[in-house]
Design goal:
InterPro entries: DUF3304. The structure is a single chain. The chain is an alpha+beta fold. The chain has two helices and eight strands. Strand 2 and strand 3 form a beta hairpin.
């Protein structure tokens, strides 16, 4: 009987502990789904694909979705991974010579470059989606701005069609 009472008491204490942790201030802050979009600022380079914290993005329109905290907090980061086609493989041969086409395709895929970077997400009052800006020298800027690229209030001012410099600074 003592063992049964002890087990019930222990079970009750465990339940109270579990229930109270969900109400503690350290519980995760509310988040909302936001679109992911990208803008390539580099002329002569194609961004084939990219992800933000594992969620896929798009350079044409918006992709859904990434979870962003409703309230910005310091230390909020985005892990960006992307693949670039430096356009060094040349034009494809015709399909009539299938072996040459397959060799070209293999060369094309081998020329793709993969990059990754972790960047701070700048302060926002309201998360209106996350836009990733691909800049020369494999640099990236992100914003959760509600304004569109080119609007005076938009925080990223770099122009489109920027040239890749002859050499990039070493980080």
């Amino acid at each position: 009987m003592r063992l049964l009472r002890f087990a019930l008491l222990l079970n009750s204490m465990l339940m109270v502990a579990l229930l109270s942790t969900g109400c503690s201030p350290s519980a995760r802050s509310p988040s909302s789904a936001a679109n992911i979009s990208g803008i390539n600022h580099v002329a002569g380079q194609t961004v084939n694909s990219f992800t933000v914290n594992g969620y896929g993005g798009s350079l044409i329109g918006n992709s859904c979705c990434i979870m962003l905290p409703d309230k910005w907090r310091p230390g909020l980061k985005a892990n960006i991974q992307w693949e670039v086609d430096p356009q060094t493989a040349g034009n494809p041969p015709s399909y009539s010579d299938w072996d040459k086409y397959l060799a070209w395709e293999k060369s094309l895929k081998a020329s793709f470059q993969k990059h990754s970077i972790v960047v701070e997400i700048p302060k926002y009052d309201q998360a209106c989606g996350l836009t990733v800006h691909f800049l020369p020298c494999n640099q990236v800027k992100v914003t959760a701005s509600c304004y569109g690229y080119g609007a005076p209030e938009y925080p990223v001012k770099e122009p489109l069609n920027m040239k890749e410099p002859a050499s990039c600074p070493v980080n």
